[in-house]
Amino acid sequence: MATKYRAWFQCIGGCLGQYRLSEVIYSCPECGNLLEVRHNLKALRERSPAEWKELFDTRYKVSAWPYGSSVWGKKELVCPNIDNENVVSAYEGGSNIFWARRLGEQIGVEDLWVKQCGNNHTGSFKDLGMTVLVSQVNQMMAEGKPIRAVACASTGDTSASLAAYCAMAGIRAIVFLPRHKVSFAQLIQPLANGALTVALDTDFDGCMKMVREVCSKNDIYLANSMNSLRIEGQKTISIEMVQQFNWQVPDVVIVPGGNLGNISAIGKGFLMMRNLGLINRLPRLVCAQSERANPLYRSYLNGFRKYKPLRAKKTLASAIQIGDPVSINKAIAILKEFNGIVEQATEDELANAAARADRTGLLNCPHTGVTLAALFKLVDRGIIQSQDRTIVISTANGLKFANFQLRYHEGRLKGISSRYANCPLELPAQYDTVRGAILTSLESKV
Q1: What is the CA 39 to chain-centroid distance, rounded?
Q2: 178: which residues sit within 8 A by CB, 6+ positions away?
Q3: What is the number of helices (H) and of strands (E) in the chain?
Q4: Which of 26, 192, 337, 352 is most buried by its number of CB atoms within 10 A?
């Protein structure tokens, strides 16, 4: 499809080489840095900010293929070179922003929202990036590129998303998982969608090392977030949030950080909107990490002057149990640009933060628990104030982590004091006994 809009790969470190999006390339051949997708901003600026907003609002959740997807509704800003017939989409995006009014009242933030990215097709934000990557692979294969399969290393959500989108397109998918370290709900998704699933006796970083070697030597395309096509889809989270607030910019956005692609993508989305005149200011970004997998947090403490990867320890927030994130340089650059903050959460903090918010109508995954724990800390320190419009990014559907919630309420999470535990009352089927237990419970709880 002919278009005046153009995008290409270019080094994040400033090297001048440009590479087509149809090339199989993940890092700069000159310096080894990661690549990013660049756009012809001159062509994009030929449309006024008002015209872009009108176009995006007109497309939002329509049935005209593929623009009802909140990713492909911004196609010109994402991946303009793909023919519409090669787009692989489940109409991702368009997830609701939950007004966390009760939780906000409890902590003293009147304008608190939770972006429910877990309401996507496979139950996580990963779909927003995977639709772009698999669509690009579909385009490349249609043009005769020899790609045998698409592969990723994953702690659960990436593998589920890759498997589903490849199944839609009829492309073979291979997923590498750390054995016995992902939830059953996450494991069943790639199995059900027909992906070749390889469980390795290692952690995510070990899986990442293996998938990079396998892809580099066997005409298999790499789908992890070091592939910046994913970032292009995920950056639409920013555009969508602003669009949902009638093009008003929030004050604070809090994002969980593991491999650090998402914080990089969300920052990129805001910067692109500013460059095109859709917004005139930036929010403050907060990246929240588990205390057991916190290399970015440790670097933040020294002003990002030093960074050292580490071996991540086991954490309830398994999807961000990453000690050597591939997008570290992108994330640091974004946080500097946004006057960003990095915070961490202990296991007890993240579990109880998730459960506390659940009591107000949410159902949180443990990674959202990390962001909520960071929120509570920043409110307590006065960094986030009452009037700040604050958006917490919930990355996955809580039902994918039902075992985490059940063990919390049963008091079976080691080292966790379950302050919001709520177990069923097991009673004989006798009215007086049931009535007495109910009334006692109602009198003891608000």
Answers
A1: 22
A2: 155, 199, 200, 202, 203, 204, 206, 207
A3: 17, 13
A4: 352
Residue-wise pLDDT for 223-257, tens only, equals 987 889 999 999 999 999 999 999 999 999 999 99
The pLDDT assigned to 51 comes to 98
Domains of the chain with CATH codes: 97-123+230-409 (3.40.50.1100)
Is the distance from CB of 268 to CB of 298 less than 8 angstroms? no
User: What is the total residue count of the chain?
Assistant: 446
% of the chain residues with pLDDT over 90: 91
Residue 14: partners with Cβ closer than 8 Å, 6 or more residues away: none
Determine the pLDDT at residue 183: 76
Nearest C-alpha neighbor of 367 from the set 343, 391, 345 = 345
Spatial separation of the C-alpha atoms in residues 20 and 24, rounded to whole Å: 9
Place of tokens 């994130």: 325
Query: Is pLDDT above 60 for 1?
Result: no
pLDDT of residue 155: 78
> Residue 251 pairs with which residues in a beta bridge?
none
3-state percent helix, strand, coil for the chain, nearest multiple of 5: 45, 15, 40
Cα torsion through 53, 55, 56, 58, rounded to 10: 120
| Placement of tokens 């996955």 in the chain | 396
Contacts of 383 (CB under 8 A, 6+ apart): 341
Q: At 343, which helix (H) or strand (E)?
A: strand 341-345
Q: What angle do CA 310, 311, 314 make, to 5 degrees?
A: 130
What gap in Å lies between CA 359 and CA 103, rounded to an integer? 9
Q: Quick one: tokens of 6?
A: 């153009």
Look up the pTM and report it: 0.94
